[in-house]
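Input structure tokens:
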């Protein structure tokens, strides 16, 4: 691979893009009873590539086979699990997903591949506050 060629951009000339709504973690805010809640920026529509993760790979990674995981290949710099921060969230195909792991090529090539886990239906209460 040649750094700076932006492999994702090249791949997306033959792989279809899908739309999803991206919510970036904004911080923690106190609610009316003084309890801290995660807050997220308003959702932004993004068009990038989403792929299912095959069951054998889920098993090999030691993840729960009862959960659904997807890979998202995007030029958006998505936040994953980190100390003092909540992972970013996306809504895709009537489901809500939380970022787990990143294969981060943003600084080198302008994209990253992220594993997301299904955390519920889009119609479920949002897991935080939108600011």
């Amino acid at each position: 691979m040649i750094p700076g060629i932006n492999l994702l951009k090249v791949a997306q000339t033959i792989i279809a893009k899908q739309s999803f709504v991206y919510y970036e973690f904004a911080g923690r805010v106190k609610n009316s009873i003084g309890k801290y809640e995660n807050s997220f920026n308003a959702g932004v529509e993004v068009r990038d590539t989403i792929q299912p993760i095959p069951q054998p790979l889920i098993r090999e990674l030691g993840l729960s086979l009862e959960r659904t995981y997807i890979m998202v290949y995007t030029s958006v710099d998505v936040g994953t699990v980190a100390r003092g921060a909540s992972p970013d969230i996306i809504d895709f195909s009537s489901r809500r997903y939380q970022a787990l792991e990143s294969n981060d090529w943003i600084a080198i090539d302008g994209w990253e591949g992220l594993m997301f886990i299904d955390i519920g239906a889009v119609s479920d209460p949002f897991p935080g506050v939108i600011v």
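The chain has one domain: 7-130. The longest strand covers residues 95-105.
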